[in-house]
Design goal:
- The radius of gyration is 23 Å and the shape is elongated.
- Helix content is 39%, strand content 27%.
- Helix 2 packs antiparallel against helix 8.
- It has 253 residues and is α/β, with parallel strands linked by helices.
């Protein structure tokens, strides 16, 4: 008799938990986040799956706010069109511009800071004090990339055009080029992925530091503005409690 009552109680508890799960799942908010800029380790695709430290941060934010995220990648113009028209609720990782502010709510705090640097082999002893010092040296760049006016407007550079960052970094490692341009996070990540000794390289010039953001579509109405504010709070709290470092370190350490 006691066993039967115990079993009935367990069954009742299980039923309550199941109902609670179904109700919460039914009321969960779904949201599509789009991206168009593959910039490992912030966001990148591996074996057909989107990954990255910025994506991981957004996933944690969504979980804490009862949102079920869906991540998709398109060319930038299509991603911007999707979020502008409300076909996507969020977009990442992107720069903040006046034009984009017309259709996006931005958090006050960026999701990351992109530090674009010029790299050389440590043993080369190359020193760059200004962008003009790059002239006369072979420098690897990625086909179609923009690195900012300080670099893009320079003329008479001996550029070696590379199709991938892997190709560029291997060329630098093998001494086929003197310099390479890449963000600090990406260069560190790629050295780890390619099993190269990061200490064999040195950053010889800091070209720029630019904040990048996750932003929410104004088609969401007040909810979009609310999420932008909540993401600002989330970033501040995650910085204090070590959650950001916990998410980022596996990509670069």
């Amino acid at each position: 008799m006691k066993n039967k009552m115990k079993n009935n109680a367990l069954m009742f508890l299980f039923t309550l938990l199941l109902l609670f799960f179904i109700i919460n799942t039914a009321h969960a908010e779904s949201m599509v986040f789009v991206t168009g800029g593959m910039s490992p380790p912030l966001v990148y695709e591996e074996d057909g799956v989107l990954k990255g430290m910025d994506l991981d941060l957004i996933t944690v934010f969504c979980r804490e706010n009862g949102i079920v995220p869906e991540f998709s990648s398109y060319p930038w113009k299509r991603s911007l069109k999707n979020v502008m028209e409300g076909n996507a609720g969020g977009i990442f990782t992107l720069f903040r511009t006046e034009e984009r502010e017309s259709f996006l709510y931005y958090p006050s705090t960026p999701i990351n800071i992109v530090k674009t640097m010029i790299w050389a082999q440590s043993k080369s002893l190359i020193r760059i004090k200004s962008p003009d010092d790059i002239k006369g040296k072979s420098i690897g760049v990625i086909n179609g990339y923009k690195y900012g006016p300080a670099f893009d407007n320079l003329t008479d550079l001996n550029k070696t055009i590379c199709n991938t960052k892997e190709q560029m970094i291997r060329m630098l490692a093998n001494g086929r080029i003197d310099l390479a341009v890449d963000s600090e996070a990406c260069f560190t990540f790629m050295c780890k992925k390619l099993e190269l000794d990061f200490n064999a390289f040195s950053s010889v010039y800091n070209l720029a530091e630019n904040p990048v953001y996750v932003a929410f579509s104004k088609k969401l109405g007040p909810r979009g503005a609310e999420l932008a504010e909540k993401f600002t709070i989330f970033m501040h709290e995650s910085e204090k409690n070590g959650k950001i470092a916990e998410i980022r370190n596996p990509y670069i350490k």
